[in-house]
Specification:
The chain is of the alpha/beta class. The chain has a single domain (about 1-190), classed as Spore Coat Polysaccharide Biosynthesis Protein SpsA, Chain A (Alpha-Beta Complex), CATH 3.90.550. It is about 40% helix and about 15% strand. The protein has helices spanning about 30-35, 55-65, 75-90, 105-115, 145-155, 160-165, 170, 200-210, 220-230, 230-245; strands at about 1-5, 20-25, 25, 45-50, 70, 90-95, 120-125, 145, 180-185. A seven-stranded mixed β-sheet has the order 5-4-1-6-8-7-9, with helices on both faces. A two-stranded antiparallel ribbon has the order 2-3. The longest helix has 13 residues, at about 105-115. The two termini are about 30 Å apart.
């Protein structure tokens, strides 16, 4: 089974509680969930949160929406993904972060289609520069990884730094894993925008972008990009945030 697993917690260091911040008629997490639910090829969408009592609110939100939720370790996100996938019988994981409200379900489907045609341990998008899209702050892309590969990271005794960044060990070791990339869509190749939400400044920009598209979950990432391009003030704010908050 192929499942989208959205990681979400309220204990963000830079912007605590951000996933539950208002975002149009819902919250940022709900908006992200609603976009992923538009995937045609994923068998299920679940939210993986933590056992911290502060994340009870996330569980309640998911239960209200009828979205399955799994609660696991806060800091060992890799183990949380492994446990969530095993609990729900997911062998192929599409990893999505709740701080990317404008995640594009069509790009998720492209990853699943590519995996179906030619299975590999890992699939993601990549800029022509060689930088994986997941390492950019653009906020439109997820990544696909097999449960088998995640289990292997644990069994290989990977350094603890890779427990937070779930897939890095896999795509940084192409000699051990089959790693494949799809080219970032041409219209986004030169995009220098930041719609990942890590700071209050990011949140303010994302809200304005959301208002520009009427918080319509069916609007494509490319359309969101074209909308923000028309706002030099937003482009300037995003550029400043890219400079001051580089993606880990």
């Amino acid at each position: 089974m192929t499942g989208i697993i959205i990681q979400a917690r309220t204990g963000s260091t830079r912007l605590p509680g951000k996933v539950l911040f208002p975002f149009g008629p819902s919250t940022m997490l709900e908006y992200c969930i609603n976009r992923t639910l538009l995937s045609r090829l994923a068998d299920t969408v679940i939210v993986a949160t933590t056992t911290d009592p502060d994340d009870d609110a996330i569980q309640k939100l998911c239960e209200k929406k009828g979205v399955p939720v799994y609660r696991g370790p806060e800091n060992d996100v890799l183990q949380r993904y492994i446990d969530a996938a095993q609990h729900f019988g997911i062998q192929v994981v599409v990893r999505v972060c709740a701080d990317n409200p404008f995640i594009d379900p069509s790009y998720i489907d492209r990853l699943i289609e590519a995996y179906t045609r030619k299975p590999a341990d890992y699939y993601s998008f990549q800029f022509s520069s060689g930088v994986p899209a997941i390492m950019s702050p653009i906020g439109f892309f997820g990544e696909l990884v097999t449960l088998k590969a995640l289990l292997s990271v644990k069994s290989n005794n990977a350094p603890p730094q890779f427990f937070e960044h779930v897939t890095q060990y896999v795509y940084r070791h192409p000699e051990r894993y089959s790693v494949r990339y799809l080219p970032v869509p041409a219209g986004l190749e030169s995009a220098r925008i930041r719609l990942t939400v890590d700071t209050k400044e990011d949140y303010a920009v994302a809200l304005k972008a959301g208002r520009m598209i009427g918080f319509d979950v069916s609007v494509s990432a490319s359309a969101v990009y074209r909308a923000v391009l028309k706002r030099p003030d937003l482009m300037k704010k995003m550029h400043d945030q890219i400079q001051s908050n580089p993606k880990a």
